[in-house]
Amino acid sequence: MILAKELAAASLLLLSFGTGASAQDAAPFGLQWLASKSEVQALGVSLSPVKETDYGTSFSATGLPKALSDMETAILSFGYNDQLWRIVAFGREFKNDQYGSAAKARYAEIAASLAKSYKVIDRNERPPADDFYAKPENFSYALSQNEAYWYSLYASPVADIELSLDAAALQNTYWRLIYSHRGGEQEFRTAKGAAEAEAL
Amino acid sequence: MKLVVAVFASCLLILATLFTALFFVSGSPSTAELEGDIAAVRQELVAAEAEAAQYGTGSALHLLSMYRVTTLKTSEAMLTQKRYSMLRRIDLVFNVEGRAHTADPAKIAGLEVELTRAQAERDRLVAEAALYAGGLVQVVALMNAATSEMAVSQVRLGLLAERYGLMLPAPTTPEPEDPLGQQVVPEGEAL
User: Fold this and answer.
1) What is the model's pTM?
2) Pick from A151, A73, A165, A110: which is nearest to B190 by CA?
3) pLDDT band with cut points at 50, 70 and 90 for residue A2
4) What angle do the packed helices B135-163 and B31-54 form, to 10 degrees?
5) Nearest to residue B180, comparing CAs of A150, A51, A46, A144?
6) Alpha carbons B135 and B59: distance in angstroms, whole number
7) Residue B188 pLDDT more than 80?
8) Contact criterion met (CB < 8 Å) for B188 and A96
């Protein structure tokens, strides 16, 4: 009986090692999901801490293995178990893009690429209902005031993806990509709840 | 004596012909046209400075207005320099890659069309801003109008530079110290 249990445990242990990184572990920009901070740095990525605690320990990343030509910033978030579970990328701002034409064009390009690799879940490109915000020249302002929404949702076997447009300084627009690993997020939320319960 | 008079008259005739060729046969704009453009730019500069003075220093509207003022001052300086060079018969020619810049009529025509469109858009937005009595709505409308004014100034600067063969310094973007990616790839590979 004891021998059978030991054999079962040994089998499980062997199975858990796996045979190396699978396609499902592949994250965007040449990264690996659930990689630790040191493993990410071993890829040549430089990590600088940022004051963002809502998603674990977050860093601004440079030197990503792969990047888009107009990416400006990438934020990587690691859970309590030091596993990469969230990646956010911001595009370079389109200056004086009050009509949003530049941002929408770039959004369409990225959306088309994402649709080739991932399942499209939802598209919400809602112009404002208000007459003032609905004016074409106020598109970027409407985005900045959350009076307009422009986003698409995608899904892979392991991650959820959101592509959206936003605006800064009234007339400058930019695109944003958010990748969340479902398993990593669940692990993070559970650990966060436990940590808060312990603190209270 | 008659010979001296004949030689003197011939010299005068030659100089007059040369003068006519330089000022009337040449394809470059006349001094009168240049003076007109300078006057128009100065008039707009006065209006732009008055508008900038209305807004608080450091506000977004003040910044936009000052950008327009700077653009107009650059236009005035370049046109004035060109005028002085013409008065002193100094051939102010800018070279690009070893070749002297010459005005491109097609490009000038295109810029004139673009200027007309920009001015029409500016007039529309200014009229709209005048509809509001205050509040954030008016601020946004004024921002739109100020941005369109800046666009008009920039197009005019480009048109004047092309018309008078003036060179604008090419903007340079400093290279980032830490590039975001080790290699830039298409969306299909990165995402």
Assistant:
1) 0.60
2) A110
3) very low
4) 160
5) A46
6) 15
7) yes
8) no
Give the mean model confidence (pLDDT) for residues B146-152: 84
Q: Which of A63, A72, A116 sits opposite B188 (nearest CB)?
A: A116
Q: What is the pLDDT of residues A51-65, one digit of tens each?
A: 878 999 999 999 999
Strand-pairing partners, residue A172, are: A168
Which residues lie below 8 Å from residue A97, measured CB to CB, with a gap of 6+?
A: A103, A140, A171, A172, A173
Residues of B in contact with A67 (CB under 8 A): 179-185, 190
> Please, which residues have CB within 8 angstroms of residue B119's CB and are 6 or more apart in sequence?
B152
CA nearest to A85, candidates A180, A176, A177, A12: A180
The nearest CA of chain A is from the CA of B18 a distance in Å of 50
A66–B143 CB contact, under 8 Å: no
Q: Closest-CA residue in chain B for A91?
A: B180
Q: Mean pLDDT across the stretch B162-182? A: 66
Question: Can you give the pLDDT at residue B20?
Answer: 58
